[in-house]
From TrEMBL:
<keyword id="KW-0238">DNA-binding</keyword>
<dbReference type="InterPro" id="IPR036390">
    <property type="entry name" value="WH_DNA-bd_sf"/>
</dbReference>
<dbReference type="InterPro" id="IPR000847">
    <property type="entry name" value="LysR_HTH_N"/>
</dbReference>
<protein>
    <submittedName>
        <fullName>LysR family transcriptional regulator</fullName>
    </submittedName>
</protein>
<dbReference type="InterPro" id="IPR036388">
    <property type="entry name" value="WH-like_DNA-bd_sf"/>
</dbReference>
<dbReference type="InterPro" id="IPR005119">
    <property type="entry name" value="LysR_subst-bd"/>
</dbReference>
<dbReference type="Pfam" id="PF00126">
    <property type="entry name" value="HTH_1"/>
</dbReference>
<feature type="domain" description="HTH lysR-type">
    <location>
        <begin position="1"/>
        <end position="59"/>
    </location>
</feature>
<comment type="similarity">
    <text>Belongs to the LysR transcriptional regulatory family.</text>
</comment>
<dbReference type="Pfam" id="PF03466">
    <property type="entry name" value="LysR_substrate"/>
</dbReference>
<keyword id="KW-0805">Transcription regulation</keyword>
<keyword id="KW-0804">Transcription</keyword>
<dbReference type="InterPro" id="IPR050950">
    <property type="entry name" value="HTH-type_LysR_regulators"/>
</dbReference>
């Protein structure tokens, strides 16, 4: 048994003709006929009933074997595509969009990818989650990095999402504040502070439902400008609420994340997304593998 024989029987099943399969494969009719006969002898099965006027029709056993052969050939094509995606000759463009907070998490992967594939031009955009989803579905970007809860993911059936991180809600406080010494904070503790927020529906909806139970939140402003939020917190004007992976860690960090005690809050997943059913390019696949 060889791949050539599998290709022949799959094509004959489609064309119902050994002659057409021979033409498609650019070989003689006798070559196709002999190859299939040898395979039938090896398997001990008749794969096709052959008659004039009807052509070559798969037998019941033949249908099962041909189905398996088609699966093998499809996996072989996927294997070839996978191998090609590892090629050092990758070239083209990779357009990525991410929500602003966790962008620092991607920098090491992006830097390594650029070193290994200098012919790939990478463009990175900071956008809100709604804009990212719109761009994905309209083909404006190849890959989107978003934060999403399990409930929202279940509602978005058109999205293929791969989780990279699981986050929890935290309060961002200045490192010079006594609050930075706290291990955790309760929602009611926020009642006495102004808040600056990233303008994200997930955070905004949460605050209007959960934190409002402990008093009306004093929101100084909401913006997509991460630098403005960081400056407001560092200057002691307000606190911020976000997901823990959105904050840079390390002793040099000016903002310290303190866990917000929310027993009924569902985890927030950060990961990459593409439209469900869309065939990712070799460049996109190669980049995604580095994240796994």
């Amino acid at each position: 048994m060889n791949l050539e024989q599998l290709e022949y029987i799959v094509d004959v099943a489609k064309t119902r003709s050994l002659t057409k399969t021979a033409q498609n494969a650019h070989v003689t009719l006798s070559a196709v006929s002999q190859s299939i006969s040898l395979l039938e002898a090896e398997l001990g099965l008749v794969l096709f009933n052959r008659s004039r006027g009807v052509g070559a029709v798969p037998t019941q056993e033949g249908q099962a074997i041909i189905g398996r052969a088609a699966e093998i050939l499809a996996k072989l094509d996927a294997l070839r595509s996978e191998a090609n995606s590892y090629s050092d000759r990758l070239s083209g463009e990779l357009n990525i969009a991410t929500i602003p907070g966790p962008m620092h998490l991607l920098m090491e992967t992006i830097a390594g990818f650029r070193r290994d594939y200098p012919d790939v031009k990478i463009r990175i955009y900071e956008q809100g989650p709604k804009e990212i989803l719109d761009e994905l579905h309209h083909g404006g970007i190849d890959l989107g990095f978003i934060a999403i809860t399990a409930d929202l993911l279940a509602q978005n059936k058109t999205l293929q999402f791969e989780k990279l991180l699981t986050g929890k809600m935290v309060v961002g406080v200045p490192k010079t504040s006594l609050l930075a010494l706290e291990k955790s904070m309760k929602p009611e503790q926020l009642a006495g502070y102004s808040l600056v927020l990233y303008d994200d529906a997930l955070i905004r909806d949460y605050l209007t439902t959960k934190l409002a139970e402990y008093g009306e939140p004093d929101i100084l402003f909401a913006t997509n400008n991460v630098q403005a939020i960081q400056n407001a917190v560092k200057e002691g004007l307000a606190l911020t609420v976000g997901v823990d992976y959105s904050f840079e860690s390390g002793r040099q960090a000016e903002i310290v994340p303190v866990e917000l005690e929310l027993p009924d809050f569902h985890p927030v997943y950060y990961g990459w997304a593409i439209p469900r059913g869309k065939q990712a390019s070799a460049i996109t696949k190669s980049f995604v593998r580095r994240l796994q």
